[in-house]
Amino acid sequence: MEIGWMCYLRQRQVLVFFVLLSMFGVGAELGPYSVVEEMEKGSFVANLGKDLGLGLTDMYNRRARIIFQGNKEHLQLKVQTGDLLINEKLDREELCGPADPCLLYFQLLMEKPLEIFQAELRVKDINDNSPVFTEREMILRIPENSPLGIAFPLSNALDLDVGSNNVQNYKISPNSHFRVLTRKLSDGRIYPELVLEEELDREEEPEIVLTLTALDGGSPPRYGTAQVRIEVVDSNDNAPEFEQPIYKVQIPENSQVGSLVVTVSARDLDSGVHGKIAYTLFQPSEDISKTLEVNPVTGEIELRKQVDFETVQSYEVDIKATDGGGLSGKCTLLLQVVDVNDNPPEVTMSALTSPILENSPEIVVAVFSVSDPDSGDNGKTVSSIQDDLPFLLKPSVKNFYTLVTKRALDREERAQYNITITVTDLGTPRLKTQHNITVTVSDVNDNAPAFSQTTYTLRVRENNSPALHIGSVSATDRDSGANAQVTYSLLPPADPQLPLASLVSINADNGQLFALRSLDYEALQAFEFGVRAADRGSPALSSQARVRVLVLDDNDNAPFVLYPPQNGSAPCTELVPRAAEAGYLVTKVVAVDGDSGQNAWLSYQLLKATEPGLFGVWAHNGEVRTARLLSERDAVKHRLVVLVRDNGEPPRSASVTLHVLLVDGFSQPYLPLPEVAAAEARADPLTVYLVVALASVSSLFLFSVLVFVAVRLCRRSRAASAGRCSGPEGHFPGHLVDVSGAGTLSQSYQYEVCLRGGSGTSEFKFLKPIIPNLQFQSTGKEVEENPPFQNNFGI
Predict the structure, then answer these.
(1) Closest listed residue to residue 642, CA positions, set 600, 595, 603
(2) Nearest to residue 533, comparing CAs of 547, 523, 551, 515?
(3) Which of 45, 302, 398, 749 is surrounded by the most beta carbons within 10 Å?
(4) b or e along 373-404 (b: 16 or more beta carbons within 10 Å of the residue's beta carbon)?
(5) Which letter does DSSP use for residue 81 in this model?
(6) Which runs of consecutive H residues, i.e. helices, occur in 534-644?
(7) Is-contact 395 386, C-beta < 8 A?
(8) CDD domains in the record, alphabetically (predicted)?
(9) Radius of gyration over alpha carbons of the chain, in Å?
C-alpha cells in the first residue's frame, strides 16, 4: 500500500515536470497567483491590467485572452476591467492529486500586437478529506514465539489532502501486547508498524482485535479507522527472504498485454507448510493493480494492460512472499517505462485571420503552438509549409509559431490559399501531423475595367428604326464584388457639332448601344465617340474605348437628272445636222444619285424613240449618239425618252425626254417645235428672226441651186488657208453641251459654231463656251472619251 502511494506520487510529479518543461520560456512571466480550492465561481484572483501596466481599454483592444493547456477554462478574463476571475470551482485533489504544490500554468495571449505572457496559478489545499484505509480489516498471523520488538507493517491510510492536511500520525487502541510506530518513507509517505512489546501466548489469547486510527494534521484534524485482527499461530521461526531486495526493470511502453516483466524469487528455510511460499503484490495502488499481476506460485510478474510513457513514466510496488506459517518477506520492484515514438505532434491553433486584404504588407495570418508528449528526440519537432506559397513560418517563442505573408498578395492572381502545416518529430520512425487552414484574400479595387477592344467598329444601315440595337461594347474587371461591377457611359464627343445625345444611347449595365433615331447616309456617313467603363469601387476606376459607327447606304434615292434640266418652262431641243456620221454625239444625259457604292452606279437606256434604231444611248455615260447615217427620209423632229437606272436592290430609276431636230446645216433656220414655239417666242427674240429666215430660205431655194457650183469653188480656194472661222450672225439658239460622266450641271452652256469651208458634209464642232453660265465639276474627261470628234475638229 505504501509503495502504491509512492508510485502514484512520482507519476504526478513527472507529469507536472513535463507540463513545466513545455511551458518554459513562453514569454514574460506574470504572477504567481494563488487561490484556495473550492472557491466560488467568479471569485477575484488578480487584475492583469494593473500587473501589466495597461489601461482599461488596452486589454479589450488587444484582444487578450487566457489559454490553458488542453483547452481548460479554469479562469476567465474580464477584458473590460482586466480582472482575472475563477471560472469554476477548483478541486486541488482532482487537478493535482498528491502533487504539492499544485500549480496550473496558463498563458495570456494578446493578438494586436502579438504578445504572450506565462503565468502560474497555485491552488492551496484545505482539509476537506479524511484519511481512508484501503483495507478496512487487516489480518495478521503472528507466531507465538515472535521476539519482542519485532515490527509488523500495516496498511497505511490514504488522504487526498497534502502537506499538513495529510496523514501525520497513527494510534492503536489500548492493549498490553502491541504499540504502533509511525514510519516516514523517503518520498514523504507515512505508514504504521505494529511492534510487539509483550510475548504472545496462543493458549491464553489466540486472537487479538485492535483498532488502528490515522490522524491528519488539519485543524480540526480528520481521522480514519481500520480493524487489525491478530491471529496467534504456532511457531514458525524462519520468514521468506528474496534474492534481491530491489528489482529494477525497464519495459517499452508498447509491450503487449501478458508480457513478462520480471520473475521474483524468495526462499524459506522452513520445511513443509512453513516452507511453501506464495507471492502477492503488497498494498498496490489501484493503477498498479490494473497494470501488473503476479503469479502466486512462480513469482512471474506480467502486464495486465499496456503501459503509456506519456501517462506514467515509472511504477514502484512491493512484492510480498508469505510462507505457510504466516511469516513474510518483501522486496521492491522499480519498473521504468521506456518511451517509444508513438505520439504524433499536436498542433493547437491560437489565432487565425481570414480573409486578409490584398496588397497589404507583411500580415500575421495565424498563431499556433506545437507539442509532442514524447520525450527526447521523440518530442522534438520541425514545422514547415508548402514551398510554393507566399507565406513564411516564423518561430515566435518556444513551441509557438506565427504564419506571415512573404509579400503583398494579389487576389486577382489567387483568391484562396489552402495551407498545410506539417509538423514532424525527430523520433524513429518519424511521425508527422498535418493541419490544414484556408486563407482567403479579400478584394481591393486595384484593377480598372478593361475593354475587349480599344476600338469598336459598328455598322448600321440607314433608315433604321429608332431604338435599334446596333451593337455592344464589353469591359471586364478582374476585381470582385462591387469593385467588378461595370457601368457604361458615353463620353462627350470631340466634335461639338455632333449631336451625339440624339444619335445613340448606351445601356449602363450591359454596354448595349442603341440608335435613338433613324440615320440618313446622305446626311451622315460615319461618326465616332468615346465610351467609358467605370467600376463601383472606392475610388472608382475607369477606362475608355472608341466606337466608330459606319452608316451603310440603302438604295433610298432615285437617280436625279441634271441635264437636260427638267424644271424649265420649255424643253430643250438638240440640233443634229443631217450630214452627221454614225456615232455623232447628239447630247449627254447627266444624272446623279444621292446614294453610294453600287446604289449610285447609273446605267442609261433608250426607252422610247420616234424612229427606233436612229439614236443610241451609251449605257455607262449617258451619251446620246447617232446609230447610223442620217437620210433625207428621216423625220425632222424626234422625241427620245432615256431611262436612268441605279444598281441598287431594288433598283430605282428616272426618265428624261429629249427633243432632237434634224437640220441640213447650221445655216438652216431653226424650226421650233409647234408646241414650244409660243414659249420660245416669249423667251427669246431670236425665234422671230429664225421664222423669217426660214421663209426666206424657202423662197431662195432655187437660187441656191444655181449658185451651188460657185460656192463650192469658193470653198476650195479657202481650203489652203488656216480655216478661218466666222460665227453666224446672232446667237445660236441650240443648247449643245459636253460634260463628263461624273460632272454635276446646274445650267446650260452656249457654244460658237464654225462651218469649215470646203466641207461637203457641213461638219461642225464644239468650240469654247461663249457664255459660261454653267459651272462644271468635271475634269475634261468628255474630250478624252470622244476622240473622233477631237480628230475631226482639232479641239
Answers:
(1) 603
(2) 547
(3) 749
(4) bbbeebbebebebeeebebebeebbbbbbbbe
(5) T
(6) none
(7) no
(8) Cadherin_repeat
(9) 65
